Every structure is written in C-alpha cells, then in structure tokens.
C-alpha cells in the first residue's frame, strides 16, 4: 500500500463526450488546468483512443509508442495521466451510422463503466486522490457520480451560452408549443430568460421523443446539480444570457478554447488521418481560398453534396473541401459527378480530413462554408475568417443566429430544405469578393479582437478562469 501523504495539488478527472468536437476543447482545458498546478486524469473511451492511434500510425512513419496523447505535455512538466474506458460497444461497431443506439448506450449503460472507473481511481489514488470531476454537460450522470464519491462536480459546456439557455429551458419551449408537439409553433420565441428573442427556425433541431431529446433533457436536469459550470464562450459577446444563467448557477465564461491560446505543445487527437494541405495552400493568393467543411458528425445528403459540387464549380473560386465519406449517410464513395475532381484540380483540393486549425489560419483562406459547429465558428473567428452558414442539426442553427444576426460575421445560406447550385455559387461569390463582403470582414476583425482580448491578462475569460480555479480549489478544500 502506498504511503498516504498531504496532497499538494488538486486532482481533476476530465471526461469529454466521445465526439471529436467535444474532445478537442477538453484536451485544451486539461492543458490549461495542468498549467495551473492541477493533476489531470484524462479519460477517453477505448474506441476513441483506437481511432486516434490509427490516425497517428497512418500519418507517421515513426509511430509514437507512448499510448498517451499527452506524452509531449508530460515531458514539459505537466502532470497529465491518460486512461481509457469501455463505452459499452465493440470497437468495430459503427457509431456514426448507428448514432441512436450509441446515444442510448451513453444514456443507459455508460454511467456504470464510469462508476467502476471512478471507484477504482478513488481506491487506488492514495497519494493524489481525485478531488473533482470535470465532465461534459451532455452526460446524464455527473451529479450522481460526484455525490457518490464526494468530489466536486464541474460541468463543461463546449457550446455558447445561448444554446445552454435554450436547452436549459426545454420545458418552457414545450409548454408554449414551440417544441414537442406534432405541429410546433413557428412564430418568434420571446420568453426564454436571458434571450431577447429567437426565431423558431433558429432553435436547436430536436425531434419529439427522440433519443437526442431524451439525452439533452436528462443532461440539463443533471446540470442543475453541478457545483460549477464553465462554458466555451466570451462574457462580452453573450452578456445578457450569461448574466441570466449566473442568477441560478456558478457559471464562468472561459472561452474561446482553441489550441493556439493555451499551449505550444502538439496534441494529436484527430480521429482520422489528416491530409497536409499546406503545400497546396502556399501556391494560392492571400484570401483566395474557400474552406468547406461540415465537421466530424453531421450527415449531408447526396442531393446537397451534388448541388454544392456544381455550385463550387460555377463560382470559379479556389477551394478546399473536406468530404468525409462516413458523413454522407451512404456507402458510395463516388458521389461526386464523373470527372469532377479532374475538372477542378487546378483550383480545388478535395480530401477526407485535415488539420482544420492549421488550414483555417493559413493566409490563403478567405472564407469558410461551415455547418456552424461551435468549434468551427470559434476557430474561424479566431483567425478572422468570415463564414457562410450551412447548419444541419442540433445547436448549429442557434450558432448561426449568433454568427449572422448578432455578430454579423457571416451570411445565412440554408433557409429552405433544398439548395440549388445557383444559390451556392451566388453566396460563395458574395463572400469571397472582398468588396461585397467588406462589412463582414470588418465585423469579424472586431469580434476576433474581442476573442483575443478576453484571453489577455486582464481579459474577462482569463479573469473568469482564475476565479474558477480558485473556487474549484476552495471547494476541494485545497485553497
């Protein structure tokens, strides 16, 4: 048995939801907490770890024998431990194409595996016992686990405060008929605390009695029990909404959480092999390339893909298109028109995946046609790149409201169910023409400055992060 000694550092167990868009912010949060003297135990599922390992093996002729994605961080002196956990499904189970059964497993079965893990860690860590749980807000079990093992419960929300407020008040949306009925109301929603008004078309897309609805409803019941809530947003940009949430909870806006802010270390966390687009981008003029990506989860139908392809061709702009075959909702890989890649090869690069932050920060990038996932929005603004908004599911519609109508750093694209190649062409030309998009470019520079200023020494997010750390230490009896 190890000798018990006085603990000098708080020890946080960090568990992200097993999706790329949730893992990345959790990694950078872990790095920042570790730089504040925390011991971190970071938990990935075995499946996610296997995907990351495969991607590293594919991309490197010298594979890393250290199984921790934090090996370089640890070499720099940070105390980050890395472990994996079973998610209830075999490794060869297709979680993307069977998303609803997978989400049902996360709701009903995953907590048992987490409970077993935390119990083991609490029992085994005599020297540095776990003092707090930092879990993704979309889990339905953190309050139960934290209470059972008497550790501080921190809920990490990886999206903006607007989305948090809407999910938090699902009951109001149901009571007023904007959600949960066969024919939801389509008029403006003006009764959500902290939200002046929002059109029904901008509400997160959920379906009555769906697994997604069940997950979000349970998660936002559980988050009410959290000791502290932290969010990947900026106080100045969502002040009214954040102030309303803070009337009920210890809520800290600590964003933007992007890799460039917190560390110079390279963390390989991609679930797929990343094609290097730098050499191709280096051949293109400044601001001349449109980056097109719909993220790591959302499915795009075949008809939209074909119209996008023709629209990109008609626009005659340079583009990089991230076209995931597992994101098409079908098996066929030859979805593009016959001879398409050859026809656009001089100005178009089509790859399955890339390092988005590396691409979007390149000087050749002048616009982003995006699904409006929050990480993509944050990274685009951080790099001063305006957006064309093509939201598909869940929070992406509400994120569009912030991008297009609040901050005016992007244009709306997807109003109807169907898109046309002519519409695609027109929107792309508008965005990529620096004269027609001059106001957007001016606005995105201003919001970018707010992002950067928030992380300065006296910036709101840096101050909030330090307050969060002190409260976390105090609640852990380690102040």
From TrEMBL:
It comes from the Eukaryota. Its EC number is 2.4.1.-. It holds the Pfam family UDPGT. SUPFAM superfamilies: UDP-Glycosyltransferase/glycogen phosphorylase. This is Glycosyltransferase. Transmembrane segments: none annotated. It is an enzyme of class 2 (transferase). Keywords: Glycosyltransferase, Transferase. Gene3D superfamilies: Glycogen Phosphorylase B.
